[in-house]
Amino acid sequence: MFAQTLKNIDDILHKDAGCGSELDYIEQTSWILFLKYLDDLEQEKKDEAELSGKEYKEILPQQYKWDYWAMPKKADGTLDDHRALTGDDLVDFVNDMFKNLKKFKANSDNPNTIEYKIGEIFSELNNRVRSGYNLRGVIELVDKLRFKTDAERHEMSHLYESKINNMGNAGRNGGEYYTPRPLIRAIVEVTNPKIGNRIYDGAVGSAGFLVEAFDYLNKKDLSTQEYETLQKNTLYGKEKKPLPYIIAIINMILHGVESPNIQLTNTLAEEINSLQDSDRFDVVLANPPFGGKERAEVQQNFTHKTGETASLFVQHFMKYLKAGGKAGIVIKNTFLSNTDAASIAIRKDLLANFNLHTVLDLPGGTFTGAGVKTVVLFFEKGEATKDIWYYQLNPGRNMGKTNPLNANDLKEFIKLQKTRADSDNSWTVALKDIDQATLDLSAKNPNKKDETILRKPEEIIAEMKSLDSQSATLLAKLEGLL
């Protein structure tokens, strides 16, 4: 229904001088989609208020309503060309609108309100579309998109996810925003969150973990109170960069979360040593950035100081997890074996205060373009680790863009993890058997058979002699032909 429309939007943005990559396309599409969604939401809320005899307070002023600035229409529903801005007039209006929408943040005290998010989004983004004629074309296409029915939102959410996936090949580290959805679903299933849990991702990216957790919990038999809890008091995220922040907001909205609890902040710069229990979470689901270094002043916030961003995130998540809480975290496999003092100290803390019960070892190519091998750590807070169950994922093919991870690849892992059973791909290691000095937790499958068959020296020499004899016979025949 909407796939061709989104493709046509990309085609227009591709021709614009201000948009140079897939990241620019989704950024510019996102703020326009957001304003269109906001218009549909306001109309829906207004209709609900009228039916119940209540008054509805509109969010946007008249001049920034979709049917006023973007798509003014005549009585017959066609575009009013006399009122519709285009060219430089449209670009000037949009740039001025951005300045005014930024002020919504200062006028709202609650970061969880839609007004605050409007202000934050338009404080961090800019209109990159230089041609007002291209912008007019995009707006008219976005006007064809609808968010009013569940079917419409469902299709839009899947199409938007596809656009996020495409960012992995767009340069500018686009892949850091996308974790393969089959992997996320497996992590959510293993952690098994419940209604009433507070679920947290401090490196939210495109909010893949939060939308999959929402879908996992959003069952048809939820009571009104349970659904309200799911909507308002369940899913929390933080993101440092403006582009993934707006992508996360839009992605959650399209999946049905009306006002996402996402904050634009540097997660690692937050003070974590005086947390109250009310600040902590029942479930942590995350895929922190694979690379990157943090400044010395940020490192001072942590017990074990290191410039490695992922190691700081692990400490952050350990602090933010409630007693009895559960975590599923994707991280580079080198976290298990790094020999620097900070890495060993973090592993020691993890093993002493958490039950690291499962390590999922992922094959290379799981993350398109990332070029690193990763593992998933599953742990619970409150008991020390006694033994660790490992599962080495062997999809039987080279992973990559044309052969991505799929749900079938993870079926055996999910099944065996319930009882942590041993198999050709899984094994258990007792903590007492691990080197206590290095605490090296590397995934080394003891069941992996050595497929190299070693032959006796006599056999090799006999084969060489046979080959020499065959060569001599062939040369003799060739000489006879001369």
Summarize the structure.
The chain has 482 residues and is of the alpha/beta class. The chain is built from 16 helices and nine strands.
Oligomer designation = single chain
Low-confidence stretches: 171-175
Distance between the termini: 75 Å
Rg, Å, rounded: 28 Å
Proportion of β residues?
A: 5-15%
Q: Overall 3D geometry?
A: globular
Percent of residues in helices comes to 40-55%
CATH class of the largest domain: Alpha Beta
In total, how many beta strands?
A: 9
Average pLDDT, rounded to a whole number, is 89
Q: What is the CATH T-level topology of the largest domain? A: Rossmann fold
Enumerate how many helices there are, as a single number.
16
**Helix vs. strand class:** alpha/beta
**Main β-sheet, in a few words?**
9 strands, mixed
In order across it, which strands form the biggest sheet?
3-2-1-4-5-7-6-8-9
Tags for this model:
alpha/beta, Rossmann fold, 9-stranded mixed β-sheet, Ferritin, 482 residues, 16 helices
